[in-house]
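Risk register update: the risk of archive-format incompatibility is retired. Evidence:
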Amino acid sequence: MTQTKEFSYPSSDGVHTIHAHEWFPQSSPIAVIQIVHGVAEHIGRYQHLAQFLTAHGFVVCGEDHLGHGLTVNDGRYGYFAPRGGWDLVTQDVRRLREIEGKKFPGLPHVLLGHSMGSFLTRTYLIRWPGTVDGAVLSGTGQEKAPLVAFGRLLAGGLAALKGSDYVSPLIYELSLGAYNKKFQPARTRADWLSRDRDMVDANLNDPLCAFQPTVSMFRDMMEGLQFIASKKNLSKMDVDTPIYFLSGDQDPVGSMGKGVRKVEAMFRSAGCRDVTVKLYAGGRHEMFNELNRQEVMEDLLVWLEQRFFD
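Archived output:
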């Protein structure tokens, strides 16, 4: 059985306490994999991935972001902060990396970011280059700059008008709510996540996933997308850090593969020397919850072993 531990540490916002989780292998650990989860989910959803990785000698860790999972103690789900939320959440990811670095000095440390977590990971790679040994970007993408700017303006305007914790049905339908349109007639509002009905239903029935983000969180995320699209910022990355993109070619977040290739090109243009892309035919947004998730995890293992243990 995989050994687990839950703990907490102070958030960068000076107010909240971040809930974190660790999974340990039975043997001596060979590396640390830090999972950075996506929007409207939590680190507990990665239990099966953690069990797979610990069975192969990895320590796995991750935290619930501000406004997510068990970090929420004030009922404000989908809310980062009044201002500067993207920076705060990224700093919380950095703090966990520092904590794990002290626990496991000298071991390779890899960030694995999914969806919004991939955007946070890309932000991390810019802000703290050379402080991780690799990055896995799952379900990533990059919307066109005018659309991102419009989203930031609209969400920011609503936050100023109605309050930073306001939840806008309009913004939700224009963003996350629009992803399901690719899969009509749809069985549920979350068919875009996976072809595996059980996994979709588990998400819909999870009380920690049953919320819509606030307008300020959408604004913060748009600010983050602008930050990671900047050529100036991309040039700050450590070009020797290995990068692994994995996505379904039917993932609307990655524009059905085109957005993933766009980000790949951005990384290559920034000089990154070790970039791998894996697009899975028919796969949707959550490849670790897809019908072929065993294949996806085994491919990840191969990439990790080739980079760090050959």
